[in-house]
Design a protein that fits this description.
Keywords: Membrane, Transmembrane, Transmembrane helix. The structure is a single chain. The chain is α/β, with parallel strands linked by helices. It has three helices and eleven strands, in the order E-H-E-E-E-E-E-H-E-E-E-E-E-H. It has one domain. Strands 2, 5, 6, 7, 8, 9 and 11 form a seven-stranded mixed β-sheet that branches. A hairpin with a 5-residue loop joins strand 8 and strand 9. The termini are far apart. About 25% of the residues are buried.
Length: about 260
């Protein structure tokens, strides 16, 4: 039945929908996606090296130093170095209402949370550790490193401390954050969404070591990223149009080793 006088309610005013904010960063493919699809369809084995030959190097990463006599470091562990390490809890730190259940939970330590039910950093070494890496300031993603390949020979208990099987028993959390960007060191060639050359700039990172159970800050140091790798598949491009050097695993291991193994 039509309304009186043939009138209908006026339509609601148009919704003034705002366009989504454009991300300040992007990911670009090193190689065209069709090439990867073609290789997979025909069962071709594709080996990705450091990058195409048109990547130019403005310098080489420093060589891995040998540690210990004959290049083999002494097997460590069993020391009580933890008793000598002091630290303070940053203001604003808050206890988590639940225990660590998965390794990603440990990333919350970098954001101000701690887990009272986790084991404290005390007793004899080794002490289990996880690293939460945030390679780009503009990104919200922090990756929990769960597979650390040590650059030296070590006993099984030492290897397990760097690659803990149970996140609920982890004592230490190392938070790695990009803090500044410097000069260009090389150029990376990318193909998708369009061919272009992306400059790689040297990046500085802050590494902060916390006790998971209390968020007691045990150490803090800045390191310059020595990994000048354009990546096998895709690279991160920041709002400045550049990609950045990253920390080598050996840099992190050498910087944190005394807290884990002594």
């Amino acid at each position: 039945m039509p309304p009186p006088n043939g009138g209908y309610p006026a339509p609601p005013p148009a919704w003034n929908m705002q366009p989504p904010k454009k991300s300040p960063y992007r990911w670009v493919w090193r190689f065209g996606l069709p090439l990867l699809i073609l290789a997979s369809c025909f069962g071709l084995a594709v080996t990705f090296g450091p990058g195409p030959k048109d990547d130019d190097d403005a310098g080489n990463s420093s060589a891995r130093p040998a540690a210990g006599k004959g290049g083999q470091p002494p097997v460590t562990g069993g020391g009580d170095g933890a008793s000598k390490v002091k630290g303070t809890v940053p203001k604003g730190s808050k206890a988590s209402s639940y225990a660590v259940r998965k390794v990603e939970d440990l990333n919350r330590v970098c954001d101000g949370r701690f887990y009272p039910k986790s084991p404290k950093y005390t007793g004899v070494a080794p002490h289990s550790i996880v690293m939460g890496v945030k390679n780009q300031k503009e990104s919200d993603t922090r990756l929990a490193e769960t597979r650390i390949e040590l650059p030296y020979q070590a006993a099984s208990e030492i290897k397990e401390a760097w690659n803990p099987p149970d996140p609920a028993k982890v004592q230490l959390m190392a938070c790695v954050d990009q803090v500044s960007v410097g000069a260009k060191v090389k150029t990376c060639q990318v193909d998708d969404p369009k061919p272009e050359k992306v400059p790689m700039k040297v990046s500085t990172y802050q590494v902060t070591l916390y006790e998971v159970a209390t968020r007691r800050r045990l150490a803090q140091v800045r390191m310059t990223g020595e990994k000048e790798d354009c990546g096998p598949l895709f690279i991160f491009v920041g709002s400045d149009g550049a990609t950045y050097t990253e920390l080598e695993t050996r840099q992190l291991v050498e910087g944190l080793r005394r807290y884990v193994e002594q």
